[in-house]
Amino acid sequence: MAGQGAMTEDRELRMFTTEIDQVTEAQWNALLEGFVDASLYQTWAYGAVSWGDKQLSHLVLRDCGRPVALAQFRIVRLPVLGRGVAYLRWGPVCTPAGTEWNEAVCREALRAIIAEYVDRRRLLLRILPRQFTQDNQGCRLLELCQELGMRPDDDVKPYHTFRVDLSPPLETLRKSLDQKWRNQLNGAERNGLEVVEGTSDAIYQEFLALYDEMMARKQFDTTVDVREFRQIQERLPEPQKMWILISRKDGKPMTALVGSRVGNMGIYLLGATSNEGMKTKGSYLLQWTLMQRLKERGCRWYDLGGINPETNPGVYHFKQGLGGQEVNGLGRLALSADLLSTASVNGAEKLRALISRVRSH
Length: 361
Known about the structure:
By secondary structure, the protein is an alpha+beta fold. It is about 40% helix and about 25% strand. It contains eleven helices and 14 strands.
C-alpha cells in the first residue's frame, strides 16, 4: 500500500511529503544509516525476525525530497474484526546525520504517523520513544506527543537504565569508573585474557555456548531469545551488525558480550559468563573494551541495557560502576480514534495474560 501525505509548509519554507510502504529492505537499511538517532529496534532485520515481514510498515518523511524522518511499525490486526494496533519502538527516527534534533520535523513526523495509522487505518497507535526524561529533547518530545493527543500508557513501566557519555577522552572515562569497578578491571587486565571481537556467526556461536552454560547454572526465566538475535544478526547489513566480544583464558572462552552499534548510542544487549569465567573478571574487561569500540565508531552514548535495583540489585551495582547517569525513558504513549480497535486490543491482551497465568500454575 502506498500513501502520500498532505504537503505542508512552515515558516522555514519546508515542504514535507510522506511515503508509506514504498521502500525495499535494502533502501530502508541505507536510509537508516543516515540518522544519528537510529537504533537496532528500527532495523528491518529486527522487525522481520521478531514479528515477521508481513507485519511491518515503513513511513518515510521527506523535506523537499530529502529524508528527514523514519518510522518502522509492527502492525497487528485481530481476525474478523480487522482492528488492531500499530506499534513503534524507539521512534520516530528524525535526526539526520550532521543536524540537530528539529522540533518542526519531529512534529510533522508525528502528524504523518497519526494521519496514516490512527485516522486512515483506524488502529490503536502505541509509541515507545528512544529519548529520556533527563534531556530537554525528551521533555519536548513528550509535550509534542501530548499536544497531538497521545497519552501515557500507565500499564507499561518506563524504561530505566544507566547511560554513559562517551564524549570525554578515554583516560577521563576510565577515571570516571567507580573505584571498586576500576580495581576489578585492573585485575582482569592482569589475568592474561585474550579478547576476540567481530560480527561473524562463528563468534556468535561461541557466545551461545557460554550463554547456555550460564543459563544451566542460574536456571532463571527470561523473555530474551538469544537464538532469535542470531537470526537478526544474520540478516543485518554489515554496518548495522551487533558487535560480539569474547574473553578467553588459555584459548578457552570465559565471558561474552553482545552490543548494538546502530546510530549514536550503543546498547548492551546480551552477556554470558562460564563457570570458570566468573573468577577471571572478564565481564569488566569486555565492558571497557566495548566502550572503547563504541567511542572509536563515533557513538556519543552507551546505554547499559536496563536496570532494576529491586529485582536485580547485583546487576544494578555492576552497571552503576561504569560511571553513567541513571535515566528514565518517556514510557509508552498511546492514541486511538477507534473505540473498537482500543477495546479489541486491550481485551485480547487481557485474555493472553490470563492464559499465561493459568499455564504458569
